[in-house]
């Protein structure tokens, strides 16, 4: 009896499975167990969320976030000088955030443009540090769209800034659109980077101009002497670019472009990098002795600077230097800004109204 009962159950089970196979997907899933039914949509949702996150991460990495200290720190310095100046009757946080937003978005857009034209000109290949287009992480159309969106976002931020800032619109526009044009022409159009003028553009743009723009946005006054405070940051920021160009000198030369690192050679490039890296520390030492001990604060990063300079001399570790220099630039700059905010006496770059 038991045997016949088991035999009668087997065909029933087989028939049930066959019926389920022929049912529509929705019906089949409804007859499944509760655990399995809930797993399918959860898994697909998780995969969709993961895909969205990875896409966002891809776009974020395309902006080269490690380099953004070059535009953010000068903006912070200019704002700090405005706060300390005689014209800062009321420091506006909204103006500060809009200034930082416009500066950083233009910098990001410039990075994207650089990625695009380096790839188009055959400079970024398999050994390139920026893998965005080399590894087809993003398409060329996506990179172009990203750059356009960033430029439009920056212009939108500038319009709001021009409305809120006490500065004359023509003064703000001259600096902002001059910086925007330079960020594009660095590799697009004229291509300053490819004719050994990139270092000069970076030295001016991510130092004196950024500091002046932030100062003017807050105070409404044009004061060229604020550029004096930007010298340490400008030199340190140029060290980032120069280390990058020195690392890529061989591939750049094969691609037919000319950079300062190629013109002066490896040995002179090392000497120049050391000067760019350590000259700001010498200035801070003088400021500390003459004006306030607060200016000795950035010297706490000096041991790290020596380590990075040592890596610059080694071909095996040279590829690490640009990002490490950018990281040093951030902490170095923040400590400099703290010193400017806390020191009772600032260096004698006399602020004069224009």
UniProtKB/TrEMBL annotation:
<comment type="pathway">
    <text>Quinol/quinone metabolism; menaquinone biosynthesis.</text>
</comment>
<dbReference type="GO" id="GO:0031966">
    <property type="term" value="C:mitochondrial membrane"/>
</dbReference>
<dbReference type="InterPro" id="IPR044878">
    <property type="entry name" value="UbiA_sf"/>
</dbReference>
<keyword id="KW-0812">Transmembrane</keyword>
<dbReference type="GO" id="GO:0007005">
    <property type="term" value="P:mitochondrion organization"/>
</dbReference>
<dbReference type="GO" id="GO:0009234">
    <property type="term" value="P:menaquinone biosynthetic process"/>
</dbReference>
<feature type="transmembrane region" description="Helical">
    <location>
        <begin position="143"/>
        <end position="164"/>
    </location>
</feature>
<comment type="similarity">
    <text>Belongs to the UbiA prenyltransferase family.</text>
</comment>
<dbReference type="GO" id="GO:0004659">
    <property type="term" value="F:prenyltransferase activity"/>
</dbReference>
<dbReference type="GO" id="GO:0005789">
    <property type="term" value="C:endoplasmic reticulum membrane"/>
</dbReference>
<keyword id="KW-1133">Transmembrane helix</keyword>
<dbReference type="GO" id="GO:0035167">
    <property type="term" value="P:larval lymph gland hemopoiesis"/>
</dbReference>
<feature type="transmembrane region" description="Helical">
    <location>
        <begin position="327"/>
        <end position="346"/>
    </location>
</feature>
<keyword id="KW-0474">Menaquinone biosynthesis</keyword>
<dbReference type="InterPro" id="IPR000537">
    <property type="entry name" value="UbiA_prenyltransferase"/>
</dbReference>
<keyword id="KW-0637">Prenyltransferase</keyword>
<feature type="transmembrane region" description="Helical">
    <location>
        <begin position="194"/>
        <end position="215"/>
    </location>
</feature>
<protein>
    <submittedName>
        <fullName>GL14097</fullName>
    </submittedName>
</protein>
<keyword id="KW-0472">Membrane</keyword>
<keyword id="KW-0808">Transferase</keyword>
<feature type="transmembrane region" description="Helical">
    <location>
        <begin position="284"/>
        <end position="306"/>
    </location>
</feature>
<feature type="transmembrane region" description="Helical">
    <location>
        <begin position="95"/>
        <end position="117"/>
    </location>
</feature>
<feature type="region of interest" description="Disordered">
    <location>
        <begin position="19"/>
        <end position="43"/>
    </location>
</feature>
<feature type="transmembrane region" description="Helical">
    <location>
        <begin position="257"/>
        <end position="278"/>
    </location>
</feature>
<feature type="compositionally biased region" description="Polar residues">
    <location>
        <begin position="24"/>
        <end position="36"/>
    </location>
</feature>
<dbReference type="GO" id="GO:0000139">
    <property type="term" value="C:Golgi membrane"/>
</dbReference>
<dbReference type="GO" id="GO:0035207">
    <property type="term" value="P:negative regulation of hemocyte proliferation"/>
</dbReference>
<dbReference type="GO" id="GO:0035204">
    <property type="term" value="P:negative regulation of lamellocyte differentiation"/>
</dbReference>
<dbReference type="Pfam" id="PF01040">
    <property type="entry name" value="UbiA"/>
</dbReference>
<feature type="transmembrane region" description="Helical">
    <location>
        <begin position="171"/>
        <end position="188"/>
    </location>
</feature>
<dbReference type="GO" id="GO:0042371">
    <property type="term" value="P:vitamin K biosynthetic process"/>
</dbReference>
<dbReference type="InterPro" id="IPR026046">
    <property type="entry name" value="UBIAD1"/>
</dbReference>
<keyword id="KW-0496">Mitochondrion</keyword>
């Amino acid at each position: 009896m038991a045997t016949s009962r088991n035999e009668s159950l087997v065909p029933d089970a087989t028939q049930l499975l066959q019926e389920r196979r022929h049912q529509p997907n929705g019906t089949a899933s409804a007859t499944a167990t509760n655990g399995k039914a809930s797993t399918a949509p959860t898994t697909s949702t998780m995969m969709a969320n993961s895909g969205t996150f990875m896409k966002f991460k891809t776009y974020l990495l395309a902006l080269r976030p490690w380099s953004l200290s070059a535009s953010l720190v000068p903006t912070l310095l200019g704002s700090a000088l405005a706060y300390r100046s005689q014209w800062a009757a009321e420091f506006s946080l909204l103006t500060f955030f809009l200034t930082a937003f416009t500066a950083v978005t233009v910098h990001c857009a410039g990075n994207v443009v650089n990625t695009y034209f380096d790839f188009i000109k055959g400079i970024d290949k398999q050994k390139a540090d920026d893998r965005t287009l080399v590894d087809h992480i993003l398409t060329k159309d996506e990179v172009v769209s990203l750059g356009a969106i960033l430029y439009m976002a920056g212009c939108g931020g500038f319009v709001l800034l021009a409305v809120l800032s006490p500065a004359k619109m023509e003064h703000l526009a001259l600096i902002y659109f001059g910086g925007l044009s330079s960020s594009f022409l660095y590799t697009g159009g004229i291509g300053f980077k490819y004719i050994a003028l990139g270092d000069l553009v970076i030295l001016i743009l991510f130092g004196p101009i950024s500091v002046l723009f932030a100062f003017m946005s807050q105070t409404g006054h044009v004061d060229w002497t604020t550029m004096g405070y930007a010298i340490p940051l400008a030199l340190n920021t140029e060290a980032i670019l120069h280390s990058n160009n020195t690392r890529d000198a061989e591939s750049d030369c094969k691609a037919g472009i000319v950079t300062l690192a190629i013109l002066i050679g490896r040995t002179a490039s090392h000497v120049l990098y050391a000067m760019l890296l350590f000259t700001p520390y010498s200035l801070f030492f003088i400021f500390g002795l003459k004006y306030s001990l607060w200016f000795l604060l950035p010297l706490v990063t000096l041991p790290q600077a020596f380590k990075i300079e040592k890596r610059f001399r080694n071909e095996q570790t040279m590829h690490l230097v640009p990002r490490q220099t950018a990281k040093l630039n951030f902490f170095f700059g923040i400590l400099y800004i703290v010193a400017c905010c806390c020191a009772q006496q600032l260096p004698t770059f006399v602020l004069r109204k224009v």
